[in-house]
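I had to read the description of the data format several times before I understood it. The format is easy to grasp once an entry is in front of the reader. For illustration, here is how one protein appears when written out as sequence plus structure tokens:
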Amino acid sequence: MLRFTRIFLWSVAICLALALLLMTQSFKRKAKNGEVEYQCYLGRSYFEGKGAIRNYKKAEKWFRLAAEKGHDHAEFYLGLMYYEGKGVTKNYTEAEKWFRLAAEKGFTHAQYYLGLIYYEGKGVAKNYTEAEKWFRLAAENGLPEAQFNIGNMYREGRGVAQNNIEAAKWYRMAAEKGNVYAQLNLGSMYKEGMGVAQNDAEAEKWYRMAAKQGHTDAQAILEEMHSTGIGVAQNDAETERLLRTAAEKGDPDAQFRLALMYEKTRGAEKNDTKAVKWYRMAAEQGHTGAQFALGMRYEMGMGVAKNEAEAERLLRMAAEKGDPHAIIGLKILKLRPSRLKKTTPSKAQ
């Protein structure tokens, strides 16, 4: 039965591949005959590597043919290729030209990128007013990245009068569509009471949404809220969970704070082995607090075999970065009896 299933699946895969090949060949014939929709379709196939092996040179060829006939999608993609330097030499002036052609036809992503060109001053003079114009058009068409940028412009007063109420409004639109940066910023506005009534529960809600998408800043803020009980009920178990999530993704601050939890038994069972593990991971990434803590453990033999040489190495690393605790620890270490040279008193003459 299993063998039959495998043969069946292979047959289906072969049939689909053949169908895709025939369809692609048909589209190529139509594209060569000048049908603009098929020229753009082939361009996307080569650009995205879907239905064809990715080939930016071929993508540029077909996009250009369609763009020169006024196809808005092709104009946008040709602009994107110049913007990113894919298949062509990076050229922001050319990118602006093609983005504008598509943007003026109402193509949302082209409007967004044209706004980005003016916001960053790439290929054109930096112009926040012009950037806001194009971001707004894209934002009103529902693009969350543009809505987030409009929120930023209101928050910072760039291209528009500074207005936290408008900033929060646009952040919310983007946040509700899943934009992680808008979720983080909206959480901050609720936390600080900027443009909205101060509301720690709402802040926690939006920070949590951003944290679930892996945003480490949101995870850190959420962890601090639960650790201190500011704005939410103190919850050490949740603090540990949040720290572990960020620590496992390589955040050195989270690794250090998680080690502290295992060392100080707050919210987690005291566990020297786990404390050493997370201190080590943070120390290896240059976290001076972790280097100091791990160095002292080697000095005292806590959770690791006593090793003065390793203790000195770790303390020195932290001290060289200016950590005051490590500087003092290194001085104390050098005063240990085992480090002092034994001297023989000279005989009286």
